[in-house]
Every structure is written in structure tokens, then in C-alpha cells.
Amino acid sequence: MSELRELYQQLIIDHGRRPRNFGCLDAANHQKEGYNPLCGDKLTVYIKERDGVVEDLSFEGQGCAISMASASLMTQTLKGKTIAEVTTIFDRFHNLVTKGDDGELAESLGKLSALAGVAEFPMRVKCATLCWHTMLAAIKNSDEIVSTE
Ligand code: ZN
Question: How far is the CA of 43 from the centre of ligand 1 (A)?
């Protein structure tokens, strides 16, 4: 178990330092900015959606390692998914980081389960979920400003 934990930590550090899918997406037809005032994390999510499928997505911004790693892993996970699948994954991920890992949940989330440990740190939950709330607001074309507060 501690070996797995170490692996997860390395994954978070790696994605936090070298986020994947980082940068503006020129072909995006949805975009949204999100802000977590508690930590200072700020990011923009770009989504290229066609016929209910997330064909491509990226993000840019700055924040703590957790927020960057979460956004990096999110973009990797959601590419090619339908909006319905995205919503399901969002719900599962939200449960994982707020209620903790029940085994089954983490298994269905693959690499995203690396972030399960934040459930023990309520302050960090907002770092991990910021990109997800921002991504959903982008898909829904919400006019509201995304803030974790
Ligand atoms: Zn943060």
C-alpha cells in the first residue's frame, strides 16, 4: 500500500512539474477561467467539443502542484469522452477527493485515483477540484465566474 502511495506521489509531482496538455487550444469552442482564492490557483480550461464529444482539451494557468497535476490528469482522462461520460467521471472524482477511496471508486478512475489522498486535507480538495468545476462550467457555457469560494 505504501508503495502505491509513493507511486501516486511521484505521479502528482511529475504532472505538477510538467503538466500535460498545457497551453491555449486554438480550436477550442468552449473556454472558462477558474480561481481558487484560498490557495491562489488560477487556470483556464479550453475544450474542443463536437457532437457531444470532447475531441480535445487543454488548460493553462498557475497554481500549486495539486491543482496543476489534477488539471493535467483531467485533460488526459477526458480526451475523446462524451459529455455524459465526462459528467459521470466528474461525480466519481468528486466523491473520491471528498469522501476518500473506497477501492472500487479508485479502480474505476485509473490514474486520477492518485489524488485520492487529498480527501484527508480539506484545503487541498479545492485545489484538486478547481479544474473540474471549471471544465464543467466551460462545457455548459456558464456565464458564472468559477470560484471555489
Ligand atoms: Zn492549490
Answer: 11
pLDDT, tens only, 77-131: 999 999 999 999 999 999 999 998 777 888 889 999 999 989 998 889 999 999 9
DSSP label at 61?
A: E
Rounded Cα distance between 85 and 83, Å, is 5
Q: Which of 149, 128, 146, 144 is nearest to 16 (CA)?
A: 128
Distance of CA 125 from the midpoint of ligand 1 (Å)? 9
C-alpha cell at 22: 498545457
Distance 9 CA to ligand 1 centre (A): 16
Ligand 1 centre to CA of 61 (Å) is 12
Strands 53-62 and 30-36: unpaired
For ligand 1, the distance from its centroid to the CA atom of residue 73, given in whole angstroms, is 15
